[in-house]
Amino acid sequence: MSLPFLEENDQTAARREHLEALRHLVGNVYPNKFERSEIIELGREDTISAIVEKFRAFEPKVGSDGRPGAEEIELANQQLNQFNMRLAGRIASPPRVMGKAAFVHLSDGVSRLQLYIRRSDVAGVRNDAGGGDVDGWSLFELLDHGDFIGVAGYLFVTKTGELSVHVQKLQFLAKALLPLPDKMHGIHDPEIRQRQRYADLIAGSLKLEKDGELTPREVFELRSHAVREMRRILEDHGYIEVETPMLTSLPTGAAARPFKTHHNALDIDLYARIAPELYLKRLLVGGFEKVFELNRNFRNEGISRVHNPEFTMLEFYWAYADVNRMMDFCEEMLRAVVFTVLGHTHVRFGEHDLDFGQPFRRVKMRESVGDFNGNYDQLLEQFESHVEPTLIQPTFITDYPKPISPLSKASPADASVAERFELFISGAEIANGFSELNDPLEQFERFKDQVKQRERGDEEAMLMDEDYLRALSYAMPPAAGIGIGIDRFVMLLTNKQSIRDVILFPHMKPKNAAPQPEE
Questions:
Q1: How far apart are CA 107 and CA 110, in angstroms?
Q2: Distance of CA 408 to the CA centre of its chain
Q3: What is the 3-state secondary structure (H, E, C) of 71-89?
Q4: Total Cβ atoms within 10 A of residue 114
Q5: Strands 101-107 and 96-98: what pairing?
Q6: Which of 96, 332, 357, 412 is 20 to 30 A distant from 75 in Cα terms?
Q7: If phi over 0 gives left and psi between -120 and 50 gives alpha, with beta otherwise, what is residue 253?
Q8: CA 205, CA 181: separation in Å to the nearest integer?
Q9: Separation in Å, CA 193 to CA 111, 146, 210
Q10: Three-state SS letters, 449-467
Q11: d(Cα 90, Cα 166) in Å, to the nearest integer?
Q12: Cβ–Cβ < 8 Å for 115, 151
């Protein structure tokens, strides 16, 4: 039977034949579970990585001939043979068969461990409800590179000194019907990497040549570490994590084009949120003093090296603080996250060495463009085209024109500018923060200006949000807020030049559509 999701070739045909033979041998070829041992820590299943980390120290040192001495091997095995375990993982290398025995490596996606399988003493497991044993060697001969298996056996080191498991029980868990990516070099085509992230992760786990770059899995583990550290810092400073709606009746909180949908039961149009800002500030009205949300935002705009229609933002608000205190906190937090995640404060990004250990530069927007006498539209255009690309080291740009900052308070020193900053690193905006406008009458006038801009054709201008104005009318304390782009920040930490490389499943055109290059 032809399957639309499988290429028809000799390799896939052979794998499907093996699957059918396994079905006859073990019964259920996709069993429901495999129980792993708990040798390392009671209550936690043993992983291959945990076993390798715990027992690699038993591997004896090799001599001048490249092999360890017989006495060292015997001593190591006297200790290792006492450990019986049950492990599971993906076959990470084609089996090396030597007569009546074979070696193969098993991987958990991070580490690999060698298995030794001997024809005379390996039993296979039948996966049907009745259980029982089958011929283990026959089962082994039907395995392919990439299959998932479970094994039971004891630890030992080989004559070359490699930590291994002598397999006594072998259980089939899942068949790889497609051949795995090149284990030597990984996947180089970014289109395949980003469209088929599962293949990218597999290839990274199998890659034998270490070129100094992070593997795909390491990229996303580092991302998780950075987010976890940000959450910890905020919670340590008294912030409470909250959740706000992702489907909203108005696309408010930022200047952007929304995605639109329809709610059938309520018979109303809804929008995927472009920012949670107005909801989070409603919580300040309600009495929360420090709130944050790690949120997904959606903006129906172009795709580029630093833009994805769906992205992750950390947004938080601090009652009784102003823009300057928020800038200080932002700088301290990002410096701490970089140090915790990387172990130092120097970040290599492309051809630049970014120094998070030094104080971040602070420059007013008008001063950044030099001699300038135009209006705010021209100022912004000059800044974006001539200044922004030059901001390599962490730099706060402050004092934005008030008309382009409709949710921000004006500066007490100059009513024409907003108490607002944006953080730029390596030519890209990483964070945006300001002193929050809490005067409902002034906010009403700012919204009216936005509505007029929208009527003139600006699809990104904000809408009037009367419920938010009503909330402000109950009084919101002075406060500062900020949004930090998680994806762009992770790009810096992992030295990835495209935002698609730090999002597990980025949006892409269908395969049969014309390719869309990044801007």
A1: 7
A2: 31
A3: HHHHHHHHHHCCCEEEEEE
A4: 18
A5: antiparallel
A6: 96
A7: left
A8: 10
A9: 21, 18, 18
A10: HHHHHHHCCCCCCCCCCHH
A11: 17
A12: yes
Helices and strands, number each (H, E), in the chain: 14, 21
CA-based nearest residue to 299, from 336, 252, 363, 360: 252
- Rounded mean pLDDT, 293-297: 96
Within a 10 A sphere around the Cβ of 390, how many other Cβ atoms?
10
How far from 178 is each of 12, 15, 150, 173, 340, CA to CA, in Å? 6, 8, 20, 16, 39
Q: How many residues does the chain have?
A: 519
Dihedrals φ, ψ of 428, to 5°? -130, 145
Cα separation, 510 vs 494, whole angstroms = 27
Summarised one tens digit per residue, pLDDT across range 405-432 is 999 999 999 999 999 999 999 999 999 9
Q: What stretches of 140-267 adopt beta strand conformation (E)?
A: 148-157, 163-174, 240-241, 247-248, 259-263
DSSP state of 389: G
| DSSP code of residue 387 | I
Q: How far is CA 394 from CA 357, 370, 422, 439, in A?
A: 10, 19, 10, 32
Sheet of strand 247-248, all strands in order from the earlier edge strand to the far edge: 247-248, 268-272, 259-263
**Cβ-contact 60, 159 below 8 angstroms:** no
DSSP labels, 456-508: TT-TTSPPP-HHHHHHHTT----EEEEEEEHHHHHHHHHT-SSGGGGSSS---
From residue 304, alpha-carbon distances to 219, 300, 429 in Å are 20, 13, 14
Residue-wise pLDDT for 359-414, tens only, equals 999 999 999 998 877 888 899 999 999 999 999 999 999 999 999 999 999 999 99
- How far apart CA 154 and CA 39 sit, in angstroms, is 11
